[in-house]
Amino acid sequence: MNIRKAIDQDRHEVWEIFTAVIQTGDTYVFAPDTAKEDLDKHWFSPYMDTYVLEENGEILGTYIIKPNQIDLGSHIANASYMVHPKAQGRGIGNLLCEHSLMEARKFGFLAMQFNLVVSTNKVAVKLWQKFGFEIIGTIPDGFNHLRLGYVDAFIMYLKL
């Protein structure tokens, strides 16, 4: 498996992952019917860096890294990760997180913060905690889960 910066030719495969992941409405704030035209602003915007994980020429995962806030808050990174449903359970999320933390340090970020981790996404919460992220806040009913209704969301933080 190889993680590299995304290129224009990757957009279609990244879209396939993006749309498959958001269809469930249980982990990301994006509406399941998000238009393909919106992928650029959500995953390929100029203020973020986009990466893909490929195996045998097939993209199985992707992540973005960006400043969590502008200007005086730009020393803290933010990242989002997606793994193709057919490749889940193979440690790809682990590899993407590990890579993003190395990149964040390389870019000079002092910390990384996840602004909205769905509390019912136990796999993600456990993975981020494995990397040392702490839950520093809970947003009551912060996520409108498509099956469960309103559920809490966590703010998670790691000092780099």
From TrEMBL:
Keywords: Transferase. It comes from the Bacteria. The keyword Transferase applies. Signal peptide: none annotated. The keyword Signal does not apply. It holds the Pfam family Acetyltransf_1. InterPro entries: Acyl_CoA_acyltransferase, GNAT_dom, Mito_N-acetyltransferase. Residues 1-160 form the N-acetyltransferase domain. One of its GO terms (molecular function) is acyltransferase activity, transferring groups other than amino-acyl groups. This is GNAT family N-acetyltransferase.
